[in-house]
Design a protein that fits this description.
Distance between the termini: 25 Å
Number of helices: 10
Number of strands: 5
Order of helices and strands: HHHHHEHEHEHEHEH
CATH class of the largest domain: Alpha Beta
Length: about 200
């Protein structure tokens, strides 16, 4: 727990007249994640702290007094180039995985940068995303960490055949639901630490 970080974050947020929801939308997390950061029950990892520093225009030292991370929690990412999909999907992932650190990305390059710095346990990837496809992103994530579980997300059923030729362990049609995610979790190749009750 890091109450000093939470207090500083709350101060920076209120100085800029941002609500927790507005900050969450800019950081691609949920409002409840921001609330946990501010109440000291959860600490963002280094990549998210760098995003916060960039957003607020401060050095990391201004935001951190004593840096800790939530590395004991599984890290789950969702990558989709459509913000509306992230806005709908991230709360579902937080509901299903309340003990995990859940982060969203609209750019595959940012997700890869995050994965380089943090062991990603589970990645939900859109199949079709501009320059780099979810299939290519899957391969890159698994080169970084071969134990990353990957579940593809798409609105097009025909992509499912291509998805099975990667190292992915699942496939969900958009929009995702908590029931569909829970069923998929039972099929993960590498079980998530602390998630046995799902």
């Amino acid at each position: 727990m890091d109450l000093a970080f939470g207090e500083k974050l709350r101060q920076l947020r209120t100085e800029r007249n941002l609500s927790q929801l507005q900050l969450a939308e800019q950081m691609f997390v949920t409002r409840s994640t921001v609330a946990r950061w501010e109440n000291g029950s959860r600490m963002p990892d280094a990549t998210v702290i760098a995003r916060l520093c960039h957003l607020f225009g401060v050095e990391a030292g201004a935001l951190l007094v004593v840096g800790t991370s939530d590395s004991e929690y599984p890290r789950i990412i969702m990558v989709d180039d459509e913000r509306i999909i992230l806005a709908g999907g991230l709360p579902i992932l937080e509901e299903v995985f309340p003990e995990a650190s859940v982060t969203g990305f609209t750019k595959p390059s940012e997700a890869l940068e995050y994965a380089e710095a943090n062991p990603v346990s589970l990645a939900f990837l859109d199949v079709e995303m501009g320059k780099i496809s979810g299939l290519e992103l899957c391969e890159a994530l698994q080169r970084i960490n071969p134990r990353t579980n990957v579940v593809f997300l798409t609105a097009y059923l025909e992509y499912s055949f291509e998805a099975w030729n990667t190292g992915a362990c699942g496939f969900l049609l958009k929009p995702i639901t908590s029931d569909a995610v829970r069923k998929q979790v039972q099929r993960l190749r590498y079980p998530l630490r602390g998630m046995n009750g799902i």
